Amino acid sequence: MIVGVVAALWLLAPIYLLGVALVVVLLAFREYADLAARAGVSISRPAAGMASALACVAVAIPGLPVEVAVAGTTLGLAAVSLATFMSKTSSVNAADCSTRTFSRQGFSTLGAV
Questions:
Q1: How many angstroms separate the CA atoms of 84 and 57, rounded?
Q2: How many angstroms separate the Cα of 88 from the Cα of each of 50, 83, 92?
Q3: Which of 100, 53, 99 has the alpha carbon at shortest distance from 77?
């Protein structure tokens, strides 16, 4: 296996080496996503997988400002996280809001309090 890795580093063109690196990054991401799922943490697999791949490509291309790619990835993941959080809390708050309105007016679902 070590001979294969050294041969790939020595003989492959940079674009093919980037392809090998992307495969390794996505396999590592899948492993971490599975570990997170076992720990009970939910993540957006497509968004986080694309962020991992983008970071790998940003580092591999010379002259590409890595900071811009990382900042864009961070903003994109933050947007996905906030949208997921807001969609979960809006359904809970909508049901809770109707209950609070009735209780503030002295009514309950069973009649006057």
A1: 27
A2: 23, 9, 7
A3: 53
Whole-model pTM?
0.62
Our count of domains for the chain comes to: 1
User: Tokens standing for 95?
Assistant: 């049901």
| Each residue's pLDDT tens digit, 58-103 | 888 888 888 888 888 888 888 888 887 777 766 555 555 555 544 5
Neighbour count for residue 48 (Cβ, 10 Å): 18
Helices (H) and strands (E) in the chain, counts: 4, 2
Contact 17, 9 (CB under 8 A): yes
In this structure, what are the phi and psi dihedrals at residue 111, rounded to the nearest 5 degrees?
135, -160
- For residue 46, give its domain range: 2-112
Specify the 3-state DSSP secondary structure of 62.
coil
Per residue, what are the HEC states of 66-98?
HHHHHHHHHHHHHHHHHHHHHHHHHHHHHHHHH
Whole-angstrom Cα distance, residue 31 to residue 113? 55
Q: How many residues does the chain have?
A: 113
